[in-house]
Sequence to fold (332 residues):
Amino acid sequence: MKASVVVPVYNEAANLPVLYQRLAQVLGELGLDWELILVNDCSRDDSWQVIRDLHARDARVKGLSLSRNFGQQSAIAAGLRHATGDVVVVMDADLQDPPELVPELLRKLSEGHDVAYAIKRSRREPLLRGILFGLFYAIQTRLAEPKMPAGAGTFCAMTRRVVDVLNRMGEHSRYLSGLRAYAGFQQVGVEFDRPERHSGKPQQSFGKLLRMGLDAIFAYSYIPARLASILGLATAAVALGVTIWVLYGKLVAGTAILGWASTMVSHLFIGAVQLICIGILGEYVARIYEEVRRRPLYIVAEAVGLTSEENAFPNSEGRTLTNPEGSTFPGH
Ligand code: UDP
Ligand code: MG
Fold:
């Protein structure tokens, strides 16, 4: 049995040697054939040089370098499409996903599960980040379909058939936890306490996290779009009530409204509701636009230990890639 470990890398030069060492240790103890696929998401530090050095030392370490910063999720997609293992592990480069948990995830697969994902029981984050993460999971797990467990991030192990399914999903809104839940099969969670990053600052800026968070909500739920209709109906009901009241005042009671305030308030309120609804629609329209352009999910600039002529056009069928050993990459 062969295991592939896929890791997105953005400015992680100081973490990579430690990650390699700890992974080699645990995978070695399991007596597995393995490969480590490090996907350099156009780091600005010397991560790519470190990946090349690791490959020179140990050919089981392979590297892809993307032509620009495509983001964590696209980097993972690139790694998954090049992984050849019977089982595939996805984890972060900063050692917040401890390599020592990998054997337990793999054990779940050998017990017959197809997906074993790690659940963050606790995490060490700055206060504001922690609150925002909590809020995100609270909203996301309520809205998303299929249901996703709160605290399940990217760290997971999957069998080949699940990875093949993920590779065939061509969409741009790639929120791994969501795609993985959508794939189905037998899934199981394993709890762990998430440590702090080994070295460096978080590379997921607030903007990147917000984008991923919005993807995780709008790509997995139509409830926000329905919310627009519900708000519209509620506003119409209020408007009807007010109309009846106004007509009663004018025609029956003879107390015509002098008010300017009530007109202003209702105008502002309806204006706000409309803008919110247009914004929600916009979220979906932008996603449709992104999907129909069918631009590549990522562009590979360089590879070590892997051959990659493809640029990952979504749903690119019928292409064959071969690795140096001559076996064919599945899913292409
Ligand atoms: N990452 C990436 N591209 C980016 C940002 C981050 O490949 O544009 C990688 C990063 O190197 C790390 C993983 O994604 O391996 C998670 O990033 P980070 O630790 O910043 O996220 P957090 O721990 O906050 O989820
Ligand atoms: Mg991290």
